[in-house]
Amino acid sequence: MTKISLTIYDQKHQVKQGKRTPESEPTLLQATAEDFVTLASQECCYEDGDKIVVSLSRSGQFVWVTLDETLATTLVYIKGNEWIYPVHLSENAKEAAPEGRFAGKSHYLSVRVATKEELAAYRNVALNPHDQKEFLGAIRMPMPMLKQEMMRRFSLVTPLMAFLPIRLMAIIPMAHGGSINKQMPL
User: Smallest Cα–Cα separation from 8: which of 89, 108, 145?
Assistant: First the structure.
């Protein structure tokens, strides 16, 4: 069992307050539970500089997270005991994100520990909507390493194959016995 805490902090590192229901009194936006935690608020507006913090009692855990309605539930690896997800609402950040990200007053966040079966399941390991520019506790797909690996694999393919559509290339066996994309189904 892993104890999970989910907390929303403001720019001054104070726990934000929000209403769980429109009729209720404002409460601190934090929740703690074993293996699965949710945090819902009906009356809370994010501000630039707020932070969502996921804390774990055990380090090195794979967890499924949903931190905003515009971010698909994602499997991430939290190397240590804490993952800090900053809320960027500057004009520059808004232009780069989908419309509505961290907007509105109603929010539902969840974090749960992944099962062994989920970790063994077939999936696109490069997909991470919760990806962050800087390392703040959760491991993301290292793009420079991914690029180097793809260049290495493409160098094993004849030059004519380099012009085939990606979906066709996914089924072409490589010289080392693998394929270009083993994780993505056709």
Answer: 108
Q: Beta strand 3-9 with 30-34: parallel, antiparallel or unpaired?
A: antiparallel
User: 134-184, pLDDT tens digit by residue?
Assistant: 555 555 444 444 445 455 544 544 444 444 444 444 444 444 444 444 444
Are residues 138 and 79 in contact, defined by beta-carbon separation less than 8 angstroms? yes
Contacts of 116 by beta carbon, 8 Å cutoff, 6+ apart: none
Q: Which residues contact 140 (CB under 8 A, 6 or more apart)?
A: 76, 128, 131, 132
Residue 176 token pair? 């080392």
Instruction: Indicate yes or no: pTM above 0.70.
Output: no
Give me the DSSP letters along 5-72.
Answer: EEEEE-TTSPBPEEBSSTTSPPEESEEEEESEEEEEESB----TT-EEEEEESSSSEEEEEE-STTS-
Q: What share of the chain is helix, strand, coil (3-state, %, to 5)?
A: 20, 30, 50
Q: Give yes or no for a contact between 77 and 62, defined as CB atoms under 8 angstroms apart.
A: yes
Give dist(CA 159, CA 179) in Å, integer: 16
